[in-house]
Amino acid sequence: MAMGSYGDDDESDLMSEINMTPLVDVMLVLLIIFLVTLPVINQAVKVSLPQANSQPEDTRSSKVDLTVRDDGTVLWNGTPVDHAALLARLAAAGQARPVPQLHLFIDRGVPYERVARIMSEAQNSGVTQLGFVTQPQPR
Questions:
Q1: What is the pTM (predicted TM-score) of this model?
Q2: Taking the alpha carbons of 128, 101, 125, 108 in that order, is the dihedral positive or negative?
Q3: Distance separating alpha carbons of residues 90 and 124, to the nearest angstrom
Q4: Bridge partner residues of 132 (DSSP)
């Protein structure tokens, strides 16, 4: 009994191709199974849910625009205010429910110390939501 290859030429090398027929058969069988089971999955169960009547709560907080200019003027929603009036308005805003958001429009030339003092006064009065508004740079 001879052991060895079936032929002596180069065509007897190992086959390096993948047979796709079994893979396609398996995929077709899986496709058929999924198509048959899909209508069974989509059946819904009728449930009687309780009904409730309620009004949506408006939780959106208002906003306050606080502008500090280079010359030292402070604007509260476009209205000029002095330091005492600013403190009074910040205290009133801190007591309001919901507490408004404070949008800070600060000019470039305003010293950081003044900005830090305004932020500290806002925090002490109860206004904790601060946001800096900037202008985009021109292209």
A1: 0.55
A2: positive
A3: 9
A4: 104
Q: 102 near 115, Cβ under 8 Å?
A: no
Specify the amino acid at residue 100: P
3-state DSSP helix/strand/coil percent for the chain, to nearest 5?
A: 35, 15, 50
Instruction: Flag whether pLDDT at 86 surpasses 90.
Output: yes
Mean pLDDT on 10-24: 76
Distances (CA, A) of 132 to 64, 115, 126: 12, 11, 18
Instruction: Please give the share of the chain, as a percent, with pLDDT higher than 70.
Output: 82
Rounded CA-CA distance 65/75 in Å is 8
C-beta of residue 98 within 8 angstroms of C-beta of residue 129: no
CA 137 – CA 116 distance, rounded (Å): 24
Q: Which helix (H) or strand (E) holds 66?
A: strand 63-68
